Amino acid sequence: MTKILIIDDEPGIRRTLASILEDENYRVLTAEDALVGIAILEKEQINLIFLDVLLPNLGGLEALERIQKEWPGIEVVVISGHANVDMAVRAVKLGAFDFLEKPLSLDKVLTVCRNALTMQKLKEENRGLKKNTLREDEIIGKSPAIENVRELIRQAAASEARILITGENGTGKELAARAIHRLSGRAAKPFVEVNCAAIPDTLIESELFGHEKGAFTDAVSRRRGRFEMASGGTLFLDEIGDMSLAAQSKVLRVIQEGKVERVGGEKTLDVDARIVAATNKDLEQECGRGKFRQDLFFRLNVIPIRLPALRERAEDIPLLLLHFLKDIGAGHIALDNSAVEFLMSQPWPGNIRELKNLAERIMVMYRGDRAGAGDLQNLIQKNLGGESSGENSKINENFLPPGYPAMKNQEFGDILNLRYTEAKNSFEKRYLEFQLARNGGIISRTAEAIGIYPSNLHAKLRKYKKD
Description:
Elements: E1 3-7, H1 11-22, E2 27-31, H2 34-41, E3 48-52, H3 60-70, E4 75-80, H4 85-93, E5 98-101, H5 106-133, H6 144-157, E6 163-166, H7 173-183, E7 191-195, H8 201-209, E8 210-211, E9 223-224, H9 226-229, E10 234-238, H10 245-257, E11 259-261, E12 268-270, E13 274-279, H11 283-288, H12 294-300, E14 303-306, H13 317-327, E15 334-335, H14 337-345, H15 351-365, E16 370-371, H16 373-380, H17 412-416, H18 420-438, H19 443-450, H20 454-466
Parallel strand pairs: 1-2, 1-3, 3-4, 4-5, 6-13, 6-14, 7-10, 10-13, 15-16
Antiparallel strand pairs: 8-9, 11-12
Helix pairs in contact: 6-7, 13-15, 14-16, 19-20
């Protein structure tokens, strides 16, 4: 039966809404505040939530943020008797399905309820379709090295054994972990990722094991840890080699006992998460240096999978680049034989990430339909923009890609003779071309350097590309 949760501090609203929805044969649960509601979510499979904005202990919009993070599959309808446009806009931006004003209209409640449940069902069906249509060759490549990895993934996924994925940065360790989860018997359950290198030591315990309200200064409410969230599914511990020894000790205990205690809590919780870990470090060497626990290494390294560097699977490089170009809408660009040979001869220290950057650079900066070795060499070269030594520094033309108009000071006289709009557009086009060149043709880096959003930069580049 479809379950609907009502979170509102007004008993009359809870009774009225519950009565309306129960008449439609929904099972209704109620909570007087967000913390009680979250406790229900931890125990029950809820399909839809009606959430008041003004609540004691934890505000409705703050609760909405947490629900979207921990239970993203549940649709939330926000309700309020003190509504305004700003509040409604914020609620929708945070992920609410709709926003209803009090007093509630019977017809409106039922209409929104049906629409929200339909949306939730469609999302579930879409996730199922994606799962069924994903191919085992999602890890792109036909080289013996990558075929061996695919076979290891298929064999490992069928078991419940812990897996340690190793390889250089950018070789696709997360992709491999997701493939293992997708092909496992836990595919219908959560895949939860933790980047151990990105979480400070002071927060890692709370992040992994959760905390109770009041456990520390900022613990304003109870929070589930990643082990709990992944129970029944897969917990991916990325960059495990960067985890502190203290945190390693606690992770080892959870692996051994299958139990966690939230920070500040006394209750022991059973967890059943399959551990897949990844690192770019040699953990055996780290154990010898005393920087990684040997007993944890043996626990994690039940099935080792090493991902080859891109230079070790050179025959896959052209195939990968064409795949990335197609993925970003530049599938019309082909590679001639010299380009293929050039790609296969490069060291690719950044591995697949570096190749993705090149694909994006080609889309933005290359104007042809068939790229050769010379085109790619010019796009790969480093320090494209030269160095700046102050406001009056000259642009180093030797570092600009071919076809880029040299921006010599005297050429700006041409711009001064144009009408305002034409002059502005002409300067902006040349400015963006130069900044892209300086930042290696990478959209995100260029946008950050000049202080605009990447989406805005994309739009401007599309405009000038058409011109």
